[in-house]
Structures are given as C-alpha cells and as structure tokens.
C-alpha cells in the first residue's frame, strides 16, 4: 500500500503548477515541481485537474463580445464624462456665486455702515474734529491723500443717497444673475439643454 504524503507546500505548489500550465516555469522551479508531484498524490490530482481545465479552454473557440458592446461602453463612458463635467460646472458656479455674494455683502455692509455712521454721528463735534484730524493727516501724506480725502468727503456729502440707491440696484441685478445661474446650472433638467 502506498503511503500518502501530506502536502505542506500547498499554495506555493499551486502557484508553480499555474505557471507551468502557462509555460512560464523553467529551471530549478520546474525540477522542484516535478519532484513534489512525484511524491504528493494530492498535488498530482490537482495538477491533472488543472491540465484538464486548461485543455478545455484550449479546445473552446474564442467568443467575442456581443454585437454593439463597444458602442454601449463608449456611450456609457461619454455619459459618465458628461455627468462629471456637469457636476464640476455646478460646483464651480455655486462656489463662484457664493464667493461673489460674500464679497458683495461685505462691500454693501461696509458702505451702508459708513453712510449710517456718517449720517448719525456726523453732527457730533468730537466726530467732526476726528474727521477733520483724519482729513489733515491725509492731506499731510501728500497730494494723493489730500485729493482722495476731498473726493470721498464731497462724494459722500453730495451723492450719498444716489450711491446707496445705485448699490441697491447693483445688488438686485446680482441677485437676478445668481438666480438665473442657479436655474440654468449644469445638471438641472429644466430646459437647460443638458438633459
């Protein structure tokens, strides 16, 4: 009766058998596989099963992809690319709109706060002295400072209300543009030409 040898190199021998089946095993590794196969009946059975499966694959005709497969894959890839572009475009519009909104709100608050402070505190003597001191410092800086000081002072005194109205109209126009961008953003299916 033949004594069975327990295989301790199971995974390693399976890898060597796979390489040998593909014709990629040479030299010392091939000799080691042959020696192991002569002593191990479990690996002999596995080797025979692998050879039978390999023979079945060699006998079978190569089957190509079904008709239209490449066209469907190309179409899906194009759709995925479109979706990614829409998503990127939407994110770009959203972030730029939010950035523009933040800058606009900051400018509006700054101008409105300045106008309100000028109107409310402008009549106080200490504020007038402070404004006068700031005006003197700016004029001492040079011609540019002096010109800017006079320009801003005159501009705020003469055109404060029209500037505020102009700023309000500008904000209304920007709000309209943001709403239009939000409605026409990529990925929105409401008459935007994407879907």
Description:
The chain is mainly α and 195 residues long. It folds into two domains: 50 residues, no CATH class; 115 residues. The chain contains six helices and no strands. It is rod-shaped, with a radius of gyration of 41 Å. It starts with 9 loop residues before the first helix and ends in a 12-residue tail after the last helix.
Q: Strand fraction band?
A: under 5%
Q: Would you tell me the structural class of the helices and strands? A: mainly alpha
The assembly state of the depicted protein chains is single chain
Unreliable stretches (pLDDT < 50, length at least 5) are 191-195
SS field, number of helical segments? 6
Could you tell me the radius of gyration in angstroms?
41 Å
Query: What is the mean pLDDT?
Result: 75
Give a count of the beta strands, DSSP E runs of length 2 or more.
0
Compute the separation of the termini in Å.
76 Å
Q: What number of structural domains do the residues give?
A: 2
Query: Strand-and-helix sequence, N→C?
Result: HHHHHH
- Measured as a percent range, the helix fraction is over 70%
What is the molecular shape? rod-shaped
Q: Strand count, sense and closure of the main sheet?
A: none
């Amino acid at each position: 009766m033949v004594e069975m040898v327990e295989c301790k190199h199971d995974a390693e021998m399976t890898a060597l058998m796979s390489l040998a089946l593909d014709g990629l095993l040479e030299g010392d590794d091939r000799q080691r596989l042959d020696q192991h196969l002569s002593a191990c009946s479990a690996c002999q059975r596995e080797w025979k099963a692998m050879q039978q499966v390999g023979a079945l694959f060699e006998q079978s005709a190569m089957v190509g992809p079904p008709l239209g497969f490449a066209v469907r894959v190309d179409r899906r890839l194009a759709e995925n690319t479109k979706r990614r572009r829409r998503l990127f475009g939407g994110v770009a519009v959203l972030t730029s709109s939010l950035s523009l909104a933040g800058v606009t709100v900051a400018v509006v608050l700054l101008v409105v706060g300045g106008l309100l402070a000028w109107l409310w505190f402008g009549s106080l003597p200490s504020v007038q002295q402070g404004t006068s001191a700031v005006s003197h410092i700016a004029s001492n800086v040079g011609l540019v400072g002096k010109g800017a000081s006079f320009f801003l002072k005159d501009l705020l005194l003469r055109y404060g209300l029209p500037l505020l109205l102009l700023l309000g109209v500008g904000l209304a126009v920007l709000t309209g543009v943001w709403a239009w961008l939000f409605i026409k953003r990529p990925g929105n299916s409401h008459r935007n030409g994407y879907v």
